[in-house]
């Protein structure tokens, strides 16, 4: 496993690798555009060169883009759906220019259309945004906590998106530990994690599991709320993350912190590396 965090790219995308290296990251996640809306700055040849140069300079292995928060492929509003599709496609293209490994996004909420129609709209949206796409940046659907009618909170639903989308084999999954826990997937024990990974493999396929957000939870199991906490300070506990890092089936994952931004992430990265060292000693 490689470890990283969501970092700022303020002042220019090329600043993200330096910001990541300062807290000990080996991989990074960033926004390539304002997450709340607004026109992104173009990715010129100069920007691409500068970003890749900084990635190499600071030995950051992989970069990921997180899509804006306002994306909703399941909206009843056609303008919102089409706008979301256009932005996701644009972010994939931008990620490809930068050499990013993947771009993760939340499918959106079906509160205005209902579960079945929402799933069909998401599948249709995936078909449109990937039509003719030949870039290198992989589309990653992030598992959600499932508040209200937010899409993508169960393996069954994620599996349907991948199995029914025309280019579903190209789509990956970003597993968020807190979102999964809030959705009812108990990974706090070895047996629990084993069972969850078996379910994932049977329904989706572990080959689709590309990255994971690494967050403890401010809320208890199955409460369907998106509330991140520092590692070991929430309902999940440190043992959860130690077991996660030690598990042999998911050693290929990039693990990315989205814990509260208050200066603790450097210590959390160091902690994750300590857990990894234990794994290496036990091999």
Describe the structure.
There is one protein chain. The protein has nine helices and ten strands. The protein is α/β, with parallel strands linked by helices and 283 residues long. The protein has a single domain (2-282), classed as TIM Barrel (Alpha-Beta Barrel), CATH 3.20.20. It has an eight-stranded parallel β-barrel. Helix 3 (78-98) links the parallel strand 3 (62-66) and strand 4 (102-105). The model has no long low-confidence stretch (mean pLDDT 96). This is Probable endonuclease 4. Endonuclease IV plays a role in DNA repair. It cleaves phosphodiester bonds at apurinic or apyrimidinic (AP) sites, generating a 3'-hydroxyl group and a 5'-terminal sugar phosphate. Residues 18-273 form the Xylose isomerase-like TIM barrel domain. Belongs to the AP endonuclease 2 family.
